[in-house]
Design a protein that fits this description.
By secondary structure, this protein is of the alpha+beta class. Among the domains are: about 5-110, no CATH class; about 165-255, Chitinase A, domain 3. Helices cover about 45% and strands about 15% of the residues. It has helices at about 20-30, 45, 65-75, 80, 85-110, 115-140, 145-155, 175-190, 195-200, 220-230, 260-290; strands at about 5, 15, 55-60, 65, 165-175, 210-215, 240, 245-255. A 4-stranded antiparallel beta sheet has the order 6-5-8-7. Strands 1-2 form a two-stranded antiparallel ribbon. α1 (about 20-30) packs across α3 (about 65-75) and α3 (about 65-75) packs across α5 (about 85-110).
Length: about 300
């Protein structure tokens, strides 16, 4: 089961596996001969399993190392290694975890966990794991495909969609304002814009009758875009100067472009929902607990995010 990291969910497409919820299904996949199948362990190891059916692949003293530990270990590797079949990096993962546990056990025997700085780091690591587990439990059920699609429909399609406004325009590019005014005079006299563009425009779109097709405002230099988007279909602009010369613009059509496809923004939408739900959880927890925040010089912070301690 893929679980969303609430911290990573603040950005799109950030999903990870929380060990406690993934060990059994992943171990089962391995036992059934999936792509993550590991090399055969010793006879003693293969008969020694966790309650979930997980397989022991090594021992450090009396401390068992399970196959599911390796699967989680692989998920912590850079993306390119997460896609490698487990059996290809099995020895390296076993060695990696064994060495880490040996060093950690030795550090504990030396009492290093009691060092204040190390204790803070351990507290932080514990907090992060518990935060992700708690938030995932409460947020994951809300991230169904139906819920994500409903949010997509609300935000990216229809009248409330996020498609950009676009115009279909033609232009005639000339060298001077006087030339632009002369073009406008011809148009006012009944000349066809497209035909005039073919003979008078110095731009590359001239042979096409000055046709620029549909474009968003961000696609053009600001003076041109401002003038074009101020026009209604059939309107012709006055002279517009840009670094390319002087333009006379005619808008043919206006439309709102189609928003992004669902598949393109699914992870982004999931992240937005997760962020909102995480915010609700945190707001509720703040209401349940007394939180006091102080500045670096020890003064109480009053207002959003901090509450002054009650005066005695």
């Amino acid at each position: 089961m893929r679980l969303l990291s609430p911290l990573a969910a603040l950005a799109p497409a950030c999903v990870l596996l929380i060990a406690s919820a993934t060990l059994a299904p992943l171990a089962a996949q391995t036992a059934q001969g999936g792509q993550t199948q590991a090399p055969a362990a010793s006879a003693a190891a293969t008969t020694d399993t966790a309650a979930s059916g997980d397989r022991v692949v090594a021992r450090i003293g009396d401390d068992p190392l399970y196959l599911s530990d390796l699967i989680v270990e692989q998920l912590a590797l850079p993306p390119q290694y997460q896609q490698v079949p487990l059996d290809q990096i099995f020895p390296q993962l076993v060695t990696r975890v064994i060495e880490r546990r040996l060093m950690a056990a030795e550090a504990e025997r030396a009492g290093m966990q009691d060092d204040p700085d190390i204790a803070r780091l351990l507290r932080r690591a514990r907090d992060l794991v518990l935060l992700e587990a708690y938030a995932t439990k409460h947020i994951q059920p809300l991230l169904t495909e139906a819920a994500v699609r409903a949010r997509y429909e609300r935000d990216h399609t229809g009248a409330g969609g996020s498609g950009e406004d676009e115009v279909h325009a033609r232009h005639i590019l000339v060298k001077s304002e006087a030339d632009a005014l002369a073009v406008i005079a011809e148009l006012n006299g009944g000349a066809d814009f497209a035909e005039l563009a073919k003979t008078r425009s110095t731009g590359p779109s001239g042979p096409r009758g000055g046709d620029l097709g549909f474009f968003a405002k961000s696609a053009m230099v600001p003076p041109f875009a401002e003038a074009a988007f101020a026009l209604q279909p059939g309107d012709v602009s006055g002279p517009v100067e840009t670094q390319f010369g002087w333009h006379v613009i005619k808008v043919e059509e206006r439309r709102q472009s189609a928003g992004p496809k669902f598949e393109e923004v699914r992870d982004q939408v999931r992240g937005q929902i997760a962020q909102e739900e995480l915010g609700k959880i945190l707001d509720g927890l703040r209401e349940q607990h007394k939180v006091e925040i102080y500045t670096l010089d020890g003064k109480p912070v009053v207002g959003p995010g901090g509450a002054a301690p009650a005066s005695k």
